[in-house]
């Protein structure tokens, strides 16, 4: 599948909603935790080798599941492959919770549902 | 740079809401090896699907997988009459980046596409949601003021209803717990400004609200939900509601399962 990588790389340089150095493990078998700069921009999560300007990879955060794993650890997996997990080990439970909350809100679909909800609520309340 | 392409392709073809779809002719970009060759511009007809800030294109309407994706965040879209009639171009800030030139079937189609794409950014959606969030707050406030009972928000009835598991019929539980998994409200396309399918006949309860970013409860918004009741009129804190509802569902489900085991209907 082709995509405009250039624009995605440009997006990775935009101000982030959230960014931190976190230990990350890919879903590949035998993968180990590696320190990465993880950056949330709109509905993409970019991950960089620390001190590199260009991300190694990007995850589109639609139809994904953000789950708490063991202590300080959360995972991202995708609806069609729920066993393939990207794992992230944070420095603290608090950091872990913050990332989980931020990532859950980071999809366009989530915002769409919020929009519908708010419109409904306003309509119910004001009749408009 | 790697991208979770399989998941992206799956998202493209699943039944989540589509903001716009249709045939467009896409200008084929060729490498010009020889400057003196005169290359005729050619176009390929593709099936385009717009979902959020992502524009997918398929070789055919029935194709199972997208051929390509244009991430639209940060783009501008403009008419492009010089190329062809009903042509428009998607451009990005990066001066060196190529533009995507697309040709619609007619004036109306072109206008619809331009409109849809110009609204397709995540940032724009976020603005709209925040605006509505504010409006809801104001509506709540003015309603509360009218009733002269500041402790009860106008929606406290619904919230109270939810907080008593015995009162809530099971089919009302929202299926939303995880990012994008919901089947709530996603049957059929929801176009960029349309009203949602109104499922409020006592069925799908509202999904969580987005978080307040810079509210007085700002720090609280980031902490986990202690299962405090969302009855408080101040709880516009989305992540709290989200977590609270999630726990509510877990409790309900467990209770239901236990009842099943005991042989109750």
TrEMBL record, chain A:
GO biological process: endosome organization; receptor recycling; retrograde transport, endosome to Golgi
Transmembrane segments: none
Cellular component terms (Gene Ontology): cytosol; early endosome; recycling endosome; trans-Golgi network
Cross-referenced InterPro entries: Boi1/Boi2-like, PH-like_dom_sf, PH_domain
Pfam families linked: PH
UniProt domain PH: residue ranges: 15-108
The name this protein goes by in its record: Pleckstrin homology domain-containing family J member 1
Automatic annotation (TrEMBL), chain B:
Major site of localization recorded for this protein: other
Entry keyword annotation includes Transport: no
UniProt xrefs under PROSITE patterns: PH_DOMAIN
Protein localization: Early endosome; Recycling endosome; Golgi apparatus, trans-Golgi network; Cytoplasmic vesicle, Clathrin-coated vesicle
Domain PH: from-to ranges: 17-122
CDD domains assigned: PH_Ses
Skewed-composition ranges (Low complexity): 216-233
SUPFAM superfamilies with a match to the protein in the record: PH domain-like
Keyword set, alphabetical order: Cytoplasmic vesicle, Endosome, Golgi apparatus, Phosphoprotein
Any Gene Ontology CC annotation: clathrin-coated vesicle
InterPro entries: Boi1/Boi2-like (IPR045188), PH-like_dom_sf (IPR011993), PH_domain (IPR001849)
A biological-process GO annotation: endosome organization
Region annotated Disordered, chain positions: 148-237
Listed PANTHER family: SESQUIPEDALIAN (PTHR22902), SESQUIPEDALIAN-2 (PTHR22902:SF15)
Family per similarity comment: Belongs to the sesquipedalian family.
Function: Plays a role in endocytic trafficking. Required for receptor recycling from endosomes, both to the trans-Golgi network and the plasma membrane.
Protein name: Sesquipedalian
Organism: Pampusana beccarii
């Amino acid at each position: 599948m082709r995509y405009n990588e250039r624009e995605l790389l440009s997006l990775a340089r935009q101000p982030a909603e959230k960014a931190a150095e976190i230990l990350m493990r890919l879903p590949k078998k035998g993968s180990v935790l590696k320190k990465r700069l993880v950056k949330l921009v709109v509905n993409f999560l970019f991950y960089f080798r620390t001190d590199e300007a260009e991300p190694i990879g990007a995850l589109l955060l639609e139809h994904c599941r953000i789950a708490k794993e063991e202590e300080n650890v959360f995972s991202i997996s995708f609806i069609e492959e729920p066993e393939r997990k990207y794992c992230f080990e944070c420095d603290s439970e608090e950091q872990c919770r913050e990332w989980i909350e931020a990532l859950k809100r980071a999809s366009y679909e989530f915002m769409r549902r919020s929009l519908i909800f708010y419109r409904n609520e306003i309509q119910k309340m004001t009749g408009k | 740079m790697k991208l979770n392409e399989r998941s992206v392709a799956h998202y493209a073809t699943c039944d989540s809401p589509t903001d716009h779809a249709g045939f467009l002719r896409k200008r084929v970009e060729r490498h010009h090896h020889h400057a003196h060759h005169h290359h005729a511009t050619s176009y390929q007809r593709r099936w385009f699907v717009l979902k959020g800030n992502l524009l997918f294109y398929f070789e055919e309407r029935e194709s199972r997988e997208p051929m390509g994706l244009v991430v639209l965040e940060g783009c501008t879209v403009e008419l492009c009459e010089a190329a062809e009639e009903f042509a428009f171009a998607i451009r990005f800030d990066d001066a060196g980046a190529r533009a995507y030139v697309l040709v619609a079937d007619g004036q109306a189609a072109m206008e619809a596409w331009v409109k849809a794409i110009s609204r397709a950014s995540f940032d724009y959606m976020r603005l709209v949601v925040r605006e509505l969030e504010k409006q809801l707050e104001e509506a709540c406030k003015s309603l509360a003021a009218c009733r002269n009972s500041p402790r009860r928000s106008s929606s406290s009835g619904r919230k109270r209803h939810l907080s008593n598991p015995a009162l809530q019929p099971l089919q009302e539980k929202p299926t939303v717990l995880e990012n994008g998994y919901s089947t709530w409200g996603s049957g059929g396309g929801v176009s960029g400004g349309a009203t949602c399918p109104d499922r409020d006949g006592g069925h799908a309860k509202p999904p969580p609200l987005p978080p307040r970013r810079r509210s007085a409860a700002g720090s609280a918004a980031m902490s986990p939900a202690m299962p405090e009741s969302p009855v408080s009129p101040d709880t516009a804190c989305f992540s709290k509601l989200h977590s609270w509802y999630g726990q509510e569902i877990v409790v309900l489900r467990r209770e239901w399962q236990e009842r099943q085991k005991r042989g109750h209907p």
